[in-house]
Design brief:
Helices cover 21% and strands 38% of the residues. By secondary structure, it is α+β, with helices and mostly antiparallel strands. The chain is globular and about 55 Å long. It contains 6 helices and 16 strands. The chain has 2 domains: 11-127, 2,3-Dihydroxybiphenyl 1,2-Dioxygenase, domain 1, CATH 3.10.180.10; 142-280, 2,3-Dihydroxybiphenyl 1,2-Dioxygenase, domain 1 (Roll), CATH 3.10.180.10. The chain has helices spanning 21-32, 84-93, 152-163, 182-189, 193-199, 234-243; strands spanning 11-17, 35-38, 49-54, 57-63, 74-80, 97-105, 109-115, 121-127, 142-149, 166-169, 175-178, 209-215, 224-230, 247-255, 258-264, 270-276.
Length: 283
């Protein structure tokens, strides 16, 4: 069997909870070219779980809201763990909250819904049949999972205790979460990756990056986990999203290594679309 892309402590999956999953499928299918299939078995009570694929590989999913869940559309981040139960215990000990106790998702895996001390919600995913996204860092797939928080010190302590993450400061206000040893795992999967990243000018330690970290000081948005999708052209993605009924929250702008835009889908879930622009590396 092919070696897993992920190890414990690495974000491995995203899905979006949508009041109208079919409408969301039309939007994201039109924007990213996703092909969608409902994985919910007949007689499951009308809930939908639309698996999104690109070129036959799994990239994300669109879900109906769970009973009792707050209204509204949102993107959800899942972090690969060895044990959802043990992770829930670690979250409690580190000052976070367990919003949904660990439970089995048929034969796909076991999960728990958790929140850090500032209130940012994420899920722990103990994989069984479902082994996370198989297509990443390509247009229409996940590029980064992003923690937005105003409590950087609290986040550093919490995620360090739960997952062993460290913070990599890269200048220009950009910081990322690293998991020591993750780069070794990636190098085993893709020999030569570390050297190629060094030759491209990536900062030291970047090969261990598992997520990004944004301090939202003064931002009225509550702490949350967001998602960045790779796109071939950020300006074209913003224009296409508008055509499909979405809203451009932040127009395309240049940043180190990328050109990016923030988009809200028609039901209100926000995400970032990022175009890799090597010429911008020194911005």
């Amino acid at each position: 069997m092919e070696q897993d892309r992920y190890i414990a402590g690495v974000p491995c999956w995203v899905d979006t909870t949508q009041p109208d999953p079919d409408a969301a499928a039309e939007f994201y299918g039109g924007l990213f070219g996703w092909e969608l299939e409902d994985l919910m078995p007949p007689g499951s009570g009308g809930g939908r779980y639309l698996q999104a694929r690109l070129g036959g590989g799994d990239v994300a999913a669109i879900s109906s809201p769970q009973d009792g869940a707050p209204p509204g559309a949102v993107w959800n981040t899942y972090i690969w763990v060895d044990s959802a139960d043990a992770t829930a215990d670690k979250v409690r000990s580190a000052g976070g909250r367990v919003l949904s106790e660990p439970f089995d998702v048929m034969d796909a895996g076991r999960m728990a819904v958790l929140a850090d001390p500032a209130g940012a919600v994420f899920s722990a995913w103990e994989p069984r049949r479902h082994r996370g996204a198989t297509v990443v860092n390509e247009p229409g797939s996940v590029n980064f999972n992003d923690l937005h928080t105003s409590d950087l010190d609290g986040a550093r302590a919490f995620y360090g205790a739960v997952f062993g993450w460290e913070v990599l400061e890269m200048g220009g206000g950009f910081a990322a979460w690293t998991l020591p040893g993750y780069g070794d795992h990636l190098e085993r999967r893709t020999p030569g990756l570390r050297q190629r990243m060094e030759e491209s000018g990536a900062p030291p330690g970047f090969v261990d990056v598992v997520a990004t970290l944004a301090g939202d000081a003064g931002d009225r948005t509550p702490p949350h986990w967001g998602v960045t999708f790779a796109v071939a052209d950020a300006d074209a993605a913003a224009a296409r999203a508008t055509e499909l009924g979405g809203q451009v929250v932040v127009p395309p702008f240049d940043a180190p290594w990328v050109r990016m835009t923030v988009i809200a889908d028609p039901q209100g879930a926000t995400f970032t679309a990022s175009q890799f622009v090597p010429e911008n590396k020194d911005l």
